Amino acid sequence: GSPQDGAYLLLSQHASGFMVSQVLFAACELGVFDLLAEAPGPLDATAIAEGLGTSSRGTERLLEACVPLQLLDVDTRGERAVYRNSGLASAFLTRLGPRSQRAMLLYLGRTTYRCWAHLAEAVRQGGNQYPRAFGVPAGDLWAAIYRSPGERLQFTRGLQEVWSVEGRRVLTAFDLSAFPRICDLGGDFFQDPLPEADLYILARVLHDWAEDKCSRLLARVHQACRPGGGVLVVESLLDEDRRGPLTTLLFSLNMLVQAEGQERTPSQYRRLLAAAGFPRFRFQRTGGTYDAILAGK
């Protein structure tokens, strides 16, 4: 094939990327992976449709699409195809798996996906898309993100799931034994009094906010922090030339459609932290999606 054929194939893959996401989200939402995890053996499309209460014609097409995506494995016995969870699905997609990512995937499918439908508008306006996607005001970010108790639970469950995979890497990136009292920062940290501690963990906190709010928060942390203490910042770091990683560049666009901030390079975080009184700066790539920065007072 010509170079043009390769380019057209790449274009086709980019254009249908949203369909791949929706196959994954729909299979999670309908309970395909949980049903197969609990079944005594592989099941055919008819049995799966009965178990899920879904149409046989829709179920069969969804299952077939899951196979080349490595979400399901298939065996053909005579005329009959039977399905079971792939290794990927067993590890990450069943409700009860210790490293399940199901809650986050459902959140992405129900909330993030709807905000991304308005990406062009977000680029036009420079603001998040909660008003367009859900009819809620965008001004108070957490009121928008936590717009119902169910939504709040889904979101916080999803965040916990991410750390079941990424947490060990970021918490072992540095030796933290010098910090006897550690505070994992959450809640309304712009208003609430902050407890005194030796180390404050800000995990995926700073990326939500524009520079001025990051500076305000870091100044509050500096004030509460004991002498010789510091902050552990956990974020997905952009390369200094801002050419990658692709996942982090997409996360940065997500901060546009869903929040107020952006993903940053190590030197952008270095400047923010130094200006707030944390000049001793080290960062560590973890090999995962999230990296670790340790900055000392």
Automatic annotation (TrEMBL):
Keywords, alphabetical: Melatonin biosynthesis, Methyltransferase, S-adenosyl-L-methionine, Transferase
Presence of keyword Transferase: yes
Q: Which residues form the O-methyltransferase C-terminal domain?
A: 186-278
An example of a Gene Ontology BP annotation on this entry? methylation
Pfam families annotated for this entry? Answer: Dimerisation, Methyltransf_2
Question: Which residues does UniProt mark as catalytic?
Answer: H207
Q: What pathway does this protein act in?
A: Aromatic compound metabolism; melatonin biosynthesis; melatonin from serotonin: step 1/2
Q: Which InterPro entries match?
A: COMT-like (IPR016461), COMT_C (IPR001077), COMT_dimerisation (IPR012967), SAM-dependent_MTases_sf (IPR029063), WH-like_DNA-bd_sf (IPR036388), WH_DNA-bd_sf (IPR036390)
Record keyword S-adenosyl-L-methionine present: yes
What terms describe the molecular function in GO for this protein? acetylserotonin O-methyltransferase activity; protein dimerization activity
Q: Which residues form the O-methyltransferase dimerisation domain?
A: 13-94
Q: EC annotation?
A: 2.1.1.4
Enzyme class (EC, first level): transferase
| PANTHER family in the record | O-METHYLTRANSFERASE CICE, PUTATIVE (AFU_ORTHOLOGUE AFUA_4G14580)-RELATED
The function of this protein is: Catalyzes the transfer of a methyl group onto N-acetylserotonin, producing melatonin (N-acetyl-5-methoxytryptamine).
Protein name as annotated:
Acetylserotonin O-methyltransferase
